[in-house]
Amino acid sequence: MINNIKVGIVGGAGYTGGELLRILIHHPLVDIVFVHSSSNAGNKVFEVHTDLLGDTDLVFSSHFNAPIDVLFMCVGHGDAKKFLEANPEFLNNNHLKIIDLSQDFRTETNAFVYGLPELKRDKIKAATRIANPGCFATAIQLSLLPLASKHLLKDEIHIAATTGSTGAGQSLAATSHFTWRNNNLSVYKAFEHQHLKEITQSIVSLEPNFNQSINFIPYRGAFARGIMASVYTKSDLSLQQAKALYQTYYASHPFTHISDKNIDLKQVVNTNKCILYVEKNGNNLLLLSIIDNLAKGASGQAVQNMNLIFGLEETTGLKLKPVGF
Amino acid sequence: MINNIKVGIVGGAGYTGGELLRILIHHPLVDIVFVHSSSNAGNKVFEVHTDLLGDTDLVFSSHFNAPIDVLFMCVGHGDAKKFLEANPEFLNNNHLKIIDLSQDFRTETNAFVYGLPELKRDKIKAATRIANPGCFATAIQLSLLPLASKHLLKDEIHIAATTGSTGAGQSLAATSHFTWRNNNLSVYKAFEHQHLKEITQSIVSLEPNFNQSINFIPYRGAFARGIMASVYTKSDLSLQQAKALYQTYYASHPFTHISDKNIDLKQVVNTNKCILYVEKNGNNLLLLSIIDNLAKGASGQAVQNMNLIFGLEETTGLKLKPVGF
Amino acid sequence: MINNIKVGIVGGAGYTGGELLRILIHHPLVDIVFVHSSSNAGNKVFEVHTDLLGDTDLVFSSHFNAPIDVLFMCVGHGDAKKFLEANPEFLNNNHLKIIDLSQDFRTETNAFVYGLPELKRDKIKAATRIANPGCFATAIQLSLLPLASKHLLKDEIHIAATTGSTGAGQSLAATSHFTWRNNNLSVYKAFEHQHLKEITQSIVSLEPNFNQSINFIPYRGAFARGIMASVYTKSDLSLQQAKALYQTYYASHPFTHISDKNIDLKQVVNTNKCILYVEKNGNNLLLLSIIDNLAKGASGQAVQNMNLIFGLEETTGLKLKPVGF
Amino acid sequence: MINNIKVGIVGGAGYTGGELLRILIHHPLVDIVFVHSSSNAGNKVFEVHTDLLGDTDLVFSSHFNAPIDVLFMCVGHGDAKKFLEANPEFLNNNHLKIIDLSQDFRTETNAFVYGLPELKRDKIKAATRIANPGCFATAIQLSLLPLASKHLLKDEIHIAATTGSTGAGQSLAATSHFTWRNNNLSVYKAFEHQHLKEITQSIVSLEPNFNQSINFIPYRGAFARGIMASVYTKSDLSLQQAKALYQTYYASHPFTHISDKNIDLKQVVNTNKCILYVEKNGNNLLLLSIIDNLAKGASGQAVQNMNLIFGLEETTGLKLKPVGF
């Protein structure tokens, strides 16, 4: 690649927009052409994402400067579809790559490729439109893909997963009020979380006969970043076989790792990594899966997809320093 | 006292209203006659203050049942004055005691007694209208009253104090969003916090010649309950003299204690206590002061004032189990 | 009851000992005769449990003052048995009631009654030795007892439950280091938590044919107090039937409540309550259960048992102000 | 520079060692030759710093591989001096650069240059031995250097500053126990913190006649990373003059920025930045200063010093993605 990738962002004032900016401003092969925000047009980016003071002088724009090579859509669920309908020049431009972080195009009854590199890396490389996966969906799928790839999901799947507050976005709400959420824990959308659709779609794409229940209890946790999922199902695999399966499946994937030791959420915060831990108890195979919901669960994975589309090393600009604590 | 005290509450759906209810429903000598809330009339109290499920079947009312012996006003700053103007029957009722938790009547140019028992216990006992002190104001005054009482505040006073998120009330705001406030720290209203007025008023009432600056840096902390203040000023007192002064001043006050060891905020959370710690370094006399902003800093102190007015033991209903952790 | 209950405590310097003291010092019908601590003999209680400064002048003792009516054992797991062997005068005293908070006597192959009032209130009233339930065990059993009582547990049970850091006790450990645990989440002892024994024992006592797996994933949460469990199993009951079953089962139990609305952990912190929430999705019956691990999960329940043994109102001294936030 | 810088680290298993590794493994011009740890020799680095799983295969060594260009010492206070005495080959090697993160050489009565680039960039560039500043000392000095440079510190200085738990290091202690520290706040070493020495030394180096008191109240905060300091002193400067002074002083320094708006701690977490905010109230000039204690307050600044010594761009490897939340 001779020239830098020219990037446009819509919805740049929200959480995924901010995280995308945090990553892209230090990406060595990217030029940010515009960051669109209807609510913040004219304001400096660091006035909204205040941790970027000193890192960038970008200003939110009210229009779409051209030309760009790739458009990231960081608008709310439902708004991505509306945006593209209202601005047909983007979908009409066959040279333009589009990476949508909303859930609007994740069900593959359209021209968008589901952007989970550990599942569809080759298709992503050839794609022009990407539907970036959901955060819970990423953590959970990465714990199940190796089994599905060998048609080994033969029983019900039981999942508890906890998300940080950034998963709920920037808008003020009772369940994101500090006084309420601090030191608290709660369950929502039990068995009915919207990410179950894309999870099932991916499993069935690998294991077409899969027709088991996926029982998913989502939790709201008292932390800002991260998702931990515990996932178990009955399996005939020994622990050794299971670990070998996971090691093999992810051997060529630079961001997903199998830990020999038990894991904890903060190992991945502020990184694009997913770390998995495999345990066997009786006939239960347990997978623990951790990601940063804003990075691998959203904007980091979006950049990973961009790297793949443009033929860059998959990890370019994504070797992020973990926060650790 | 033969009959229980008949209590009415206005503004019962907010934080101080909720805390007042948590205390009063177990107070052995109180009957709650009504809990008024314009926004929640008809709802059960435990539907708003959900931790009271199982403790009370009270329902928020839209009107003011009579008769009552005491009215607690837990409405916002500015609204207490408006409420009393719009409902003149309360101020016109000379038999009715009124305890206002807002700041509307704290400047004593009116008929309200400033309800800090450690300063004005005898006046409170004889009062019919009480202006309950502010939370920062309570923590800071309790660290200074003994010195002021002996006319020993002779130099500038330097204060840093940090409040929990409940101090900002129930309304949603950027600075009370969990994602923002978690693990964060920030300064606001430096040198200009509105509680400086009532602090100065109290000091001058004890030490009329006091004319020094009170430099107060208020912080927002990443916890829900509590205030810790560090307060220092130059003093000729030895450590021993200072401790003796504080021990003597508070000897008859059941909620304010001097600790021989260094203190930490959680020692007082969920109690009506104030704990003080005294240190001397060179000519600097340092006072650390901790309270629970909703209890001793608001609703607990309001009940303490009620106890005093009605001739009860000051601690009745206020021997609260600390949360400790 | 004419005379107060005379109480002795061994292991008073630990977390459950401290919590027991927080409750008992304000219990209206108790005299604390001694608080034994080998490590802290001679120290004031408030020097260890520093939030009790101003509440008590008790001193840890190195010996066992007599006479007492009830002995609370707050020592570590394994140490309760050793203590009673080394001090045979306690077990030999038939007039003495013993309430053990460790797990040493919870398997009922001995003279101890398992002290879960919602399961064995009548036996507890007649007992002289009580094995107080574990914290996870309490939260989980209360979510299952109504079903077991009607022999309706017919399928596997799936549990995820998260405990606060106080569940791990006072000793310093890597997993209780603030830097590590803050904003973190982790799984431990998956499928193998020691409380599964007492849970199974109680279920089988109600539903003798129960032989299903209980799959329990315990989590360490980033908060100090509380346990939330999500528990589901297949059931033919409608939501209405399930709620009616739970309402009926707990109608006479003053601390366990069914919420019509979804719940969150902080509703019960610093109380002796358990709040349950029932949901039905497809054939899955979901129970959410919340307790304070140190109160209903340990010392509060121990006092509840004491109240029952001595014929007091079950709630005496246990109407605790929730911390709420 | 043609060859990468060859780096050796001693004390690599502690917090500053881990943070140094997090930064250096992605530094484009560094080869890590050895990471010494007496306690962890033979273990993989990611077994201790578990967030580095997938980022590095480095193994802790028990010996010092040669040759290296620079030695980072991340051992405890007092141990750096002992280490160099026990291993004289390091100090005897005139070609070797040494950067010590302990406080052992910060008082400049030795051959070590105090490594605060905003104060001594030119000396650092020419140095072979660097004493890296303390974390509180960095935050506080950066708020005062511009005034001292113009001899404008003419009155007492009043400081409250709060540190995260990582400032206390990895060892387990009562004040770093999660149960204790969560939601808590406490003061320690009031007026006596050891960093006052290096702060005074730097101020006097710029303003030799400075002889005022620096009153410093250090706080322990309930977060893992970061320091916020509020610093005020009397000043004749207008707000505009003060801001201009700070803007000018830091114009050429890439990591220290002046914010026009009020700031909060998380703006700098996981970055090497210091952000300052200037306010004027009456004759009080207030400076707020925020840094990440492990980055700009320790390991990030150490790498900044390395960059300067070896003639690299000062920001090389230090454009870190902020965690933001």
Task: Considering the chains and any ligands shown, give keywords for the structure.
alpha/beta, Dihydrodipicolinate Reductase, domain 2, 7-stranded parallel β-sheet, homotetramer, Rossmann fold, globular, 325 residues, 7-stranded mixed β-sheet, 29% helix
Write structural notes for this entry.
4 copies of one chain form a homotetramer. Chain A contains 10 helices and 14 strands. In chain A, strands 3-2-1-4-5-7-6 form a 7-stranded parallel beta sheet, covered by helices on one side. Chain A folds into 2 domains: 5-133 and 296-309, Rossmann fold (3-Layer(aba) Sandwich); 135-293, Dihydrodipicolinate Reductase, domain 2, CATH 3.30.360.10. Chain A is α/β, with parallel strands linked by helices and 325 residues long. In chain A, strand 6, helix 5 (117-125) and strand 7 form a beta-alpha-beta unit. In chain A, helix 1 crosses helix 10, helix 5 (117-125) packs parallel to helix 10 (295-309) and helix 6 runs parallel beside helix 8. Chain A has helices spanning 15-24, 45-48, 79-86, 88-92, 117-125, 135-149, 178-181, 196-206, 239-250, 295-309; strands at residues 5-10, 30-36, 60-61, 70-73, 97-100, 113-114, 129-131, 157-163, 186-187, 214-220, 227-234, 256-259, 274-281, 284-291. In chain A, 29% of the residues lie in helices and 22% in strands. Chains in contact: A-B, A-C, A-D, B-C, B-D, C-D. The interface between A and D is large, with 43 and 43 residues.
